[in-house]
TrEMBL record:
<dbReference type="InterPro" id="IPR020578">
    <property type="entry name" value="Aminotrans_V_PyrdxlP_BS"/>
</dbReference>
<dbReference type="InterPro" id="IPR016454">
    <property type="entry name" value="Cysteine_dSase"/>
</dbReference>
<keyword id="KW-0411">Iron-sulfur</keyword>
<feature type="domain" description="Aminotransferase class V">
    <location>
        <begin position="2"/>
        <end position="366"/>
    </location>
</feature>
<keyword id="KW-0808">Transferase</keyword>
<keyword id="KW-0408">Iron</keyword>
<comment type="similarity">
    <text>Belongs to the class-V pyridoxal-phosphate-dependent aminotransferase family. NifS/IscS subfamily.</text>
</comment>
<keyword id="KW-0663">Pyridoxal phosphate</keyword>
<keyword id="KW-0479">Metal-binding</keyword>
<dbReference type="InterPro" id="IPR000192">
    <property type="entry name" value="Aminotrans_V_dom"/>
</dbReference>
<dbReference type="InterPro" id="IPR015422">
    <property type="entry name" value="PyrdxlP-dep_Trfase_small"/>
</dbReference>
<protein>
    <recommendedName>
        <fullName>cysteine desulfurase</fullName>
        <ecNumber>2.8.1.7</ecNumber>
    </recommendedName>
</protein>
<dbReference type="Pfam" id="PF00266">
    <property type="entry name" value="Aminotran_5"/>
</dbReference>
<dbReference type="InterPro" id="IPR015421">
    <property type="entry name" value="PyrdxlP-dep_Trfase_major"/>
</dbReference>
<dbReference type="InterPro" id="IPR015424">
    <property type="entry name" value="PyrdxlP-dep_Trfase"/>
</dbReference>
């Protein structure tokens, strides 16, 4: 079996499984806010996990706020920056953001009178920084928040987040970088990035689902979405998911050690794509000319339904995804691909293959065989 949907959700990483088995045997289990010995011990374990996450992610201890995942982190940032009386009325996002960003920005437009401006991307799915410069020049004193992702969940394309952040810093504009697909797939240092805010979900990198981290340059500026009993230094109420938070420290430690494989994995991925293109010259690799995560390939055979390819691969015990949902049983070109100007014949044909840092490199050989078989079979009858 090859699980190739890590961008959707990563299975629990081996180290997390081993950790949990021991941890569940040993305890302690207590409210980390309780003042008895078991509470203090539980708190110590969780704060140790925070220290580990902070170190690996290049943040200060206090800049790590545990929560339930990226969606919550995004909501918290929007609430903190836009939830009070703000005179500035423009939110800038990109056309390839995850719906957790798009829908939140649209909510603030519909309910709070903000205007959302959507940055275009080029054919490889890279955000247009020149347009951003123009918009900042024209609206400098009216931009409340800029939110652009570090790496795209569909294409794996890495965005010019450094340039975007510098523009934000130079112009005093708060910047949220959605690092959900970036953290765990490539090294990341929050302080070096100089972002105001970054978010991620534990389930994307092998920790338990329902865990996440909000990184905030100035945590004092966070307005809690959940008030509760003042946990997480008042940034996020509710008894902490201490076991889940510990699993993030374990998973990040395991991944950090695996980054030595990054170059070799990227090379193997490039070879895989080259082999597919050579065998099937019609094949399109989305975002091919842009810097991309080493673990993601978004591949299309124009005219062949991505879902048909997915089913063929599944019959060979390989699990990939297509770009997005169907409408009336018709695969639809995703919003991300439409923003890239991708035509429907390519857009309906994509499958996303996303692995992890620890995936055996031979997976790419197996994928080459399996995908070649699928294309050889399906090209006999064009899907659309
Ligand atoms: C880029 C990006 N941002 C945000 C999210 C939302 O993450 P979650 O559903 O874990 O809150 C995802 C999940 O797919 C994502 O890929």
């Amino acid at each position: 079996m090859i699980y190739a949907d890590y961008n959707g959700s990563a299975p629990l990483c081996l180290q997390v499984k081993e950790y949990l088995i021991k941890r569940l045997e040993k305890g302690p289990f207590a409210n980390p806010n309780a003042i008895h010995y078991l509470g203090a011990k539980t708190l110590m374990g969780m704060e140790n996990a925070r220290a580990v996450c902070a170190k690996i992610l290049g943040a200060d201890f206090d800049q790590v706020i545990f929560n339930s995942g990226a969606t919550e982190g995004i909501s918290t940032v929007f609430h903190s920056v836009l939830g009070r009386e703000v005179k500035k009325k423009i939110i800038i996002i990109s056309g390839i953001e995850h719906s957790a960003i798009i829908n939140t920005a649209n909510y603030y437009a519909q309910e709070r009178g903000f205007e959302v401006k959507v940055l275009p991307v080029n054919g490889d799915g890279v955000v247009d920084v020149e347009v951003l410069k123009q918009w900042i020049g024209q609206n400098k004193n009216n931009i409340a928040l800029i939110s652009v992702m570090a790496a795209n969940n569909e294409t794996g394309v890495i965005q010019p987040y450094k340039e975007i952040n510098s523009l934000c810093v130079d112009n005093g504009i708060p910047f949220l970088c959605d690092t959900t697909q970036f953290i765990g797939k490539t090294p990341f240092n929050f302080k070096e990035s100089n972002f105001d805010y970054a978010v991620t979900s534990g389930h994307k990198f092998g920790a338990l689902t329902g865990t996440g981290i909000l990184l905030a340059k100035n945590p004092e500026g966070i307005t809690p979405l959940i008030i509760g009993g003042g946990q997480e230094k008042g940034h996020r109420g509710g008894t902490q998911n201490y076991l889940g938070n510990e699993t993030m420290a374990v998973a990040l430690t395991a991944i950090d050690a695996a980054f030595v494989n990054l170059e070799a994995l990227a090379k193997k991925r490039t070879e895989f794509e080259a082999k597919m293109k050579k065998a099937f010259p019609a094949v399109v690799i989305l975002g091919e000319n842009a810097p991309r995560l080493a673990t993601t390939t978004y591949i299309s055979y124009p005219g062949i339904h991505g879902q048909a390819v997915q089913i063929e691969l599944e019959s060979q015990d390989i699990f990939v995804t297509t770009s997005s949902a169907c409408s009336d049983n018709m695969p639809v070109t995703s919003k991300v691909l439409r923003a890239m100007g991708v035509t429907d014949d390519v857009g309906r044909g994509v499958v996303r293959i996303s692995l992890c840092m620890n995936s055996p490199h031979e997976n790419y050989d197996l994928l080459t065989d399996a995908l070649s078989k699928a294309y050889a079979k399906l090209t006999k009858v064009a899907s659309f």
